[in-house]
Amino acid sequence: MNTPLRFTSLALALMLSSGATLAADLKIGVSMSQFDDTYLTYMREDMDKKVKAMGGVDLQFVDGRNDVNKQLDQVQELIGKKVDALIVNPVDTEATVKITKAATDAGIPLVYVNRRPDDPKLPAGVASVTSDDKEAGRMQMEYLAKKMDGKGNVVILLGELANNSTRDRTAGVKEVLKNYPDIKVTQEQTGAWQRQKGMDVTNDWLTQGRDFKAVISNNDEMAIGAAMALKQAGKKGEVFVAGVDGTPDGLSAVKKGDLSVSVFQDAKGQGEGAIDAAVKLAKKETLPEQAIVIPFKLITPENVNTFK
Amino acid sequence: MFASTTASASTLSPVSGTTNDAEHPYLLEITNISKGFPGVVALDNVQLRVRPGSVLALMGENGAGKSTLMKIIAGIYQPDSGEIRLRGEPVVFQSPLAALQSGIAMIHQELNLMPHMSIAENIWIGREQLNGLHMVDHRAMHRCTAELLGRLRINLDPEEMVGNLSIAERQMVEIAKAVSYDSDVLIMDEPTSAITETEVAHLFSIIADLRAQGKGIIYITHKMNEVFAIADEVAVFRDGAYIGLQRADSMNGDSLISMMVGRELTQLFPERDQPVGKLLLSVRDLSLNGVFEGVSFDLHAGEVLGIAGLMGSGRTNVAETIFGITPSTRGEILLDGTPIRVSDPHFAIEKGFALLTEDRKLSGLFPCLSVLENMEMAVLPHYAGNGFVHQKALRVLCEDMCKKLRVKTPSLEQCIDTLSGGNQQKALLARWLMTNPRVLILDEPTRGIDVGAKAEIYRLISLLASEGMAVIMISSELPEVLGMSDRVMVMHEGEMMGTLDRAEATQERVMHLASGNPVH
Amino acid sequence: MKMNAMLENKPALAPRKHKRRLPTELSIFLVLIGIGLIFELFGWIVRDQSFLMNSQRLVLMILQVSIIGLLAIGVTQVIITTGIDLSSGSVLALSAMIAASLAQSSDYTRAVFPSLTDLPVWAPVIAGLGVGLLAGAINGSIIAITGIPPFIATLGMMVSARGLARYYTGGQPVSMLNDSYTAIGQGAMPVIIFLVVAVIFHIALRYTKYGKYTYAIGGNMQAARTSGINVKRHLVIVYSIAGLLAGLAGVVASARAATGQAGMGVSYELDAIAAAVIGGTSLAGGVGRITGTVIGALILGVMASGFTFVGVDAYVQDIIKGLIIVVAVVIDQYRNKRKLKR
């Protein structure tokens, strides 16, 4: 009796101590596709806040500078530092196979955040916390289509052409338009995610005397630019403007009526979800599902005050 | 007057040497070549011919058309009309390569070597010796180069980087490269313009060897003595026209000059009285670490002090130190008896110094700017109010200077690059004269300019001295130093070897000192 | 003297005054007109309306390039001295961030400096210009003192300034700027600022000592020094001016977009260099004019407007833009070469 008891207490002590070190020294490496992005910056901050509230977790951020190879190098470096878990916001969703393999080979749990890898089946120990970009496009368009009574011309402001979000959000918009044959896309131009470019392109459209009832933008920044151009041309209120992201600037634009609608991509939900998933995987707990989807929320003038 | 000897077949026939082939006595024959550029006729119906085993000197003032003709022969330009015959066969060269492959090689004035490649690589560039794997066979290349250099008695290591070679040595490499093409006709464009006398001697011995091997050599030069030293024949061009061709030994300096300028030049160096103004500048024990040591001299108003020495003897460095480009490490400079420390050209200009630099292209000209802008640069601080430049006043001044110095330019707005060397030099001299200098330092003031312009520069120097300006003139051309200077200071490897008065300065004595032997 | 009299008889070069009068920018101006006419043609074919006969659009074309144009005026002067400035886009971002942070309105709860809101408009403007000037002075001093290539020095500044712009707010955009500040970027204000600055530096380069020295240093640095020009000090001035203009561009850009963001002006330095080079500024130095640079910038603007006007596929535009940049410079060089060959 004596011996087993001793063993049990030893085992318990070991467990406790190992548990304690786990809680205190959990290191998570976070590889961001780029720091220079308003939305991702918010997500980064939300992750930081979440970790501070939890305690016992250290985050290390690296900036992939929108470069696939650079990101892979950085991920390998983090693996070399023996982090307990990895959170990756991939530069290119088609090029995640190597990252996945590097992490699984090293036995380090991996969580993709914000952008889901194109790889349909992720191996065990790899999870994703994302929102479906197509959904954002669908929500934007569905709302506007109703406002437009199902007819009229629309123009689309595209994000950076090489980005998945550009492709997917636009694809979502077009999916909805299949149901509205009287709504036509007359122009698609890139504003490279930037407010100023969005303004310039919209200005060009206006001087051409193009007739459009709505500007559908892949993000809030370009939508704000479009709204500024419309305001200057005295067309505020005549043309609907839709954005995506729900950044503070975007929210206040909806409040002021500059934007008709935006779609809230839940930076906090994604960031915190990713931290939760990573911590759970590091502690060898199981996740309820491998692909966690954080839903988008429609921001309209009516509900804008509930966001902040 | 020789100038009246026009280009006709009859003037050519008297000059007949030994011919081993009655049908094709000439290696290269050029007939009735004309070439025009928009607005200019560069060559008007000219002719020339080169015998095998001879050196043909080509002379003429800048802009006479020598270079254009040579570029036509070397395939760089295409003639508008006329014919080139090589070994009796008419030829047309579409490119420099075609000319090279037919046996015509040109050694350019501006050397075309890659400084970061070895001598061997430079010589065989584009036709490297290959081994079985089609890789460059460096050993074979080295062997061929060593053989070639040996044949030409050029004592250089084939693996040496060209960047480490002196200008003269690079010239030798260019010659070796030309010879390596088995060229029958070699064109040399002012090969001695930047090399010392001993190197010239070596070059001439190589030319003599090539002549003995039956090559035809066209030798462009401005230097009279070279013509008499190596040329068998001399052809003269003027204003795009062929003036005549004579046996070199039938000519003398005066007749050659009059052929070139179309008139008699009684005297190249103007007569000057020995002036003794007040003491202006004293230099005591001036030194620049590792470059020159212990230079001392006095300079009076109205005096011309010549500084002679070989290239690399430190002459130019003395000038640059006095002017503040490279401030001295020891010694003092006294102006009007007061010591001054010249640490910057800007300060030197304020104190009344002016320096016409040795290399026009490197440190004198602003090639893309107009004649006006080139001239006004040193006086701008005095012609600007609130930052704005007084355009009108400057224009008047520059026009005046152009007239005084006889700068030939279509307009002051003309890009200075398009002017002839002599006119560029005069414009640069004007830049300095506009600052009203008290001490004018001239470093190689007549390099690369033609006889007519030289004479004008000499006239100007003597005029300026007579007005009380103190002049320091650095030159590699001994006749020039001796002809112009009241006293001659001679330097050798950074040391002042001695100063000779006009009366005691002879070519021999100066050379003696310049070679590092003290005069007894 | 007999000799002199004879020398004067030597025929001078034939006067070619009238040829010289043709401005060197002519060819590139023709390229601009040509591109405009191509779009005009397409306009009638595709859209049944005129591309050029629309004053509003003409203003817009300039508006779109006025910020890049400001950078280009600075970089033109740097290139004339045989230098290059790669940092202008990043300095723009840094200056935009700092200026914007001092121009936030008090009814915004997330202001960077909650105690420094609703400042008079000169405060952010001076701050933005000052940051640009400082960055430029650092560029110039490093180049003048250490003698490292401008490419490297300004590359370093490009990376550091961008980093600093991000670090300043941790990547957060600086928004909700007050109206007196955003007025700087409203309507045609950027166009006016751009054109005024262009005129100022056109005059400065052509009629002042500053301009003459700039060309002299670019034409032949050694000769410039021998002519008594303080080359180092002048280089610091030139780079400082380029920095100042980048700072001004940052102020205008942030006022126009009503936000300061660390990602602003990415790769603008390359567009600015392109505008200068299209406009005839030689990367070899010593050659270049502000009028040419303005035309170069306009070519970029005409292309941007023309592409959306004709409705060129967004994915194809950059391919064409790159081609036009190269072709424009080739045409310009070809013409200049023919002119030089006498």
Automatic annotation (TrEMBL), chain A:
Organism domain of life: Bacteria
Protein localization: Cell envelope
Main location: other
Cellular component, GO annotation: cell envelope
Pfam family, any one: Peripla_BP_4
Range of residues in the leader sequence: 1-23
Keyword Phosphoprotein part of the UniProt annotation: no
Keywords of this entry: Signal
Gene3D superfamilies: 3.40.50.2300
Record CDD domains: PBP1_rhizopine_binding-like
The Periplasmic binding protein domain, residue ranges: 28-285
Any one GO molecular-function label of the UniProt entry: carbohydrate binding
InterPro entries tied to this protein: Peripla_BP_I (IPR028082), SBP_2_dom (IPR025997)
Example of a GO biological process term: transmembrane transport
Family: Belongs to the bacterial solute-binding protein 2 family.
PANTHER family: D-ALLOSE-BINDING PERIPLASMIC PROTEIN-RELATED (PTHR46847)
Record-given protein name: Rhizopine-binding protein
TrEMBL record, chain B:
Coiled coil location: none
One Pfam family it belongs to: ABC_tran
Domain ABC transporter stretches: 28-264, 271-518
InterPro entries in the record: AAA+_ATPase, ABC_carbohydrate_import_ATPase, ABC_transporter-like_ATP-bd, ABC_transporter-like_CS, P-loop_NTPase
Reaction catalyzed: D-galactose(out) + ATP + H2O = D-galactose(in) + ADP + phosphate + H(+)
SMART domains hit by this protein: AAA
Record carries keyword Transport: yes
Annotated localization: Cell inner membrane; Cell membrane
SUPFAM superfamilies, sorted: P-loop containing nucleoside triphosphate hydrolases
Record bears the keyword Cytoplasm: no
Physiological role: Part of an ABC transporter complex involved in carbohydrate import. Could be involved in ribose, galactose and/or methyl galactoside import. Responsible for energy coupling to the transport system.
UniProt-recorded name of the protein: Ribose/galactose/methyl galactoside import ATP-binding protein
Native source species: Pseudomonas graminis
Source taxonomy: Bacteria, Pseudomonadati, Pseudomonadota, Gammaproteobacteria, Pseudomonadales
